[in-house]
Every structure is written in structure tokens, then in C-alpha cells.
Design brief:
Radius of gyration: 21 Å
Strand content: 15-25%
Number of strands: 17
Structural class: alpha/beta
Helix content: 25-40%
Largest sheet: 4 strands, mixed
Distance between the termini: 8 Å
Order of helices and strands: HHHEEHHHEHEEEEEHEHEEHEEHEEEE
Shape: globular
Strand order of the largest sheet: 10-2-1-17
């Protein structure tokens, strides 16, 4: 818990320094400037937008793995729109009904308070104009989105409105929700829409998911976006190897959680060494998520390894390579029998006035 708070605090410090500060970590070469500028998640439109408490990442999902020696390591950071918490809560409620003795006989920490924790976090980061009772909404792409169940679930858990882009309007740099009683000012938007679709004026003009003028309202400080714009630069997999150094730089502390050993392909020596033993390593594209594009060397065919080798040689910036970690496993139901399945763990870290 302390280690996760440490990591997310350092990432927030970096993001706030990058977009609203002096870019100290870039100036001091803790992170290469070219790497940040070339990231798909780097959003120049986010410059100068202030966020209360510097909490640009209010909701983080930090993926952990446990190796064969029992120690935990960070597999990757998810700082844009991490999902999955609703399934945790729903599964727990179902298990508590189906296996009540498990919970009576063991000290299982509860998860059903997440909705209250999330609402408290979003209230923390509301703009000063919101007063003591900020109006919070969840902005969803709509019912055909694969995570729509979670959007609706969290709206119910927090007791807030679930809205689509067409339900909001910006007038004089203030966001309003259309209601049966007229326009109602909105103070915090928990948006489940990617940066490029958020505002057709500032980003993609063909987007029908966002709200025209939303970025101007955020810049004026009348509304807080959760998570903030541009967080994707810090969950770019090519950025991941630099996080331990950022913890040392911003917090003057040693990282409590290690990274998985990672090699960057723009370094000639690291690339040559990895290409010689690619069949022993894990190859990852830096801009993908959800496991897409990953090649696990020991389980890959010669054709897959040759393809990965060609892609690495063609785009050094676009790939990282990691040591294979023997992950812990969980008994899972597969074809009517129990079988071990490897897993990682996604804790959710909420940051407002404090980190929980």
C-alpha cells in the first residue's frame, strides 16, 4: 500500500511538472525529452491546465505480478482510464452470498466502499467555485462501449449522473448538464473517453462523443477532468523504465516496489543483446494495452519471433523487451475442470487531497 502510494505520488509530480510546471525532470535529463515528445500519450493542449493538489492522475491502476520468489514487482502503470473495479465488487458480492463461511472464517478486507472513496476523491479535486456540494458526472461513450456496465455501476455506486457528450454543453467556459429542470452547472467530469475524442474543437473535429469547448472550460478552472489530459505519456511502456528514477528524483526515496527488468530498443547495446536471446524474453509494443501485440519468447513460433525481430529493427522507439517472470497462478475453471492460470493484480489507487 505504501509502495503504490509512493509510485503514484511520483508519477503525479512528474505529470504536473510536465504540463503545469518547469519540466524539471526533462531539464535534468532524468527522462529524455525526445522520448516524451514522441509519445502518443503526450498532449500539448494540456499545457497550463492546473489541477487541484497536482493530482493529474486521480485514478490509477498499477498492475503487479508476484514472481516465483514471492516478491511483487510492477508490470505496468495505467494512468488514463483504468477499468475493472466494478467486476471486483460484483464478484465479491456474489462470492459472499455463495460462500459465506469463507468470509466468516477469514479476515477478508472489504471492497464495497470503493464508490464512497471515489466520490470523496472527486469532491477533493472539484474547483473552488463548486462549494461544498460539487456536481459530479460520469461521461460515457454510450451503451455500446465494452465497459459501459462499469460506467453505469460506478454512477450508481457514487450516486451521480451518467451522461453522454450530447447531455453536456459549454457556455462562457462553464460546463452545464441538460436536465428536465434546465441547465445545471457541472464541476467534475469523470470521463471514460480518450483524450482525442473529448473535445471536437481542440482534438478530432469528427468526434461525436465529447463536448465542444470542454478544454477551454478546464483551462479556465471551472471544471476538473478526471483523469487529467495527457496522462498517457506516463503509461507509455517506453516510459516505464524511468519511473524508479523519478521516485528518487521527486521524493528522494528508494522505490519500495521494483520494476520488471526491462530493456529499451533504442539503446544499441541493449537491442543487440536482446535480439540474440529473443526466445527467452517478452516483447511488448509500447503503445498497445490489454495484452495486444505481446510476444512471449518461450511460447512463440520461429515465425512470430522473426516477425518481432523485424518490427524491432524497423521501429526502435516502438518496442521494449522484458525478462520473463514466472507469475503466480490461480485455480480457474477451464472446460469443466480446475486448472492453474497465471495472473496479475490490479490495485486501484485514488489521489485527491491524499492518496488511498
Amino acid at each position: 500500500e505504501r509502495a503504490l502510494a509512493q509510485r503514484v505520488t511520483a508519477l503525479n509530480r512528474f505529470l504536473d511538472d510536465l504540463y503545469a510546471g518547469e519540466q524539471a525532470a526533462l531539464n535534468d535529463a532524468i527522462v529524455p525529452r525526445w522520448l516524451v515528445n514522441s509519445s502518443d500519450g503526450f498532449v500539448r493542449n494540456a499545457f497550463g491546465i492546473e489541477v487541484p493538489f497536482g493530482a493529474r492522475c486521480m485514478i490509477a491502476g498499477i498492475d503487479l505480478v508476484r514472481g516465483s520468489d514471492g516478491s511483487y514487482a510492477v508490470l505496468e502503470d495505467n494512468l488514463r482510464n483504468p477499468s475493472g473495479i466494478s467486476y471486483v465488487i460484483e464478484n465479491r458480492a456474489t462470492m459472499a452470498k455463495a460462500f459465506p463461511r469463507l468470509f466468516n472464517d477469514h479476515t477478508v478486507r472489504p471492497v464495497d466502499q470503493y464508490g464512497q472513496l471515489l466520490r470523496s476523491t472527486l469532491e477533493d479535486v472539484a474547483p473552488p467555485s463548486a462549494g461544498d456540494d460539487p456536481n459530479i458526472v460520469i461521461l460515457t461513450p454510450g451503451m455500446y462501449n465494452s465497459a459501459y456496465f462499469e460506467h453505469a455501476f460506478l454512477a450508481r455506486a457514487m450516486g451521480v449522473e451518467l451522461v453522454e457528450g450530447r447531455d453536456l454543453i459549454v457556455d462562457d467556459q462553464v460546463v452545464y448538464a441538460r436536465t428536465v429542470g434546465g441547465l445545471s452547472p457541472v464541476d467534475v467530469i469523470y470521463r471514460r473517453i480518450d483524450d482525442e475524442f473529448l473535445d471536437p474543437v481542440s482534438f478530432r473535429p469528427d468526434s461525436t462523443l465529447g463536448v465542444a469547448g470542454l478544454l477551454a472550460a478546464a483551462r479556465a478552472g471551472t471544471v476538473t477532468l478526471c483523469n487529467a489530459l495527457g496522462n498517457g505519456v506516463a503509461d507509455d511502456k517506453a516510459f516505464y523504465p524511468y519511473v524508479p528514477d523519478l521516485i528518487r528524483y521527486y521524493l528522494s526515496e528508494e522505490p519500495m516496489l521494483a520494476n520488471v527488468d526491462t530493456y529499451v530498443m533504442w539503446d544499441d547495446d541493449q537491442r543487440r543483446a536482446c535480439l540474440e536471446r529473443l526466445d527467452q524474453l517478452v516483447i511488448k509494443p509500447v503503445a498497445e494495452s490489454g495484452g495486444h501485440g505481446i510476444v512471449i519468447g518461450p511460447h512463440a513460433t520461429d515465425e512470430e519471433l522473426d516477425g518481432a525481430r523485424r518490427q524491432i529493427e524497423a521501429d526502435h522507439r516502438g518496442w521494449i523487451v522484458q525478462e520473463l517472470v514466472q507469475l503466480s497462478s490461480l485455480p480457474s475453471l477451464a472446460d469443466a475442470t480446475l486448472a492453474p492460470r497465471h495472473l496479475d493484480l490490479r490495485p486501484f489507487v485514488l489521489t485527491g487531497e491524499r492518496t488511498r
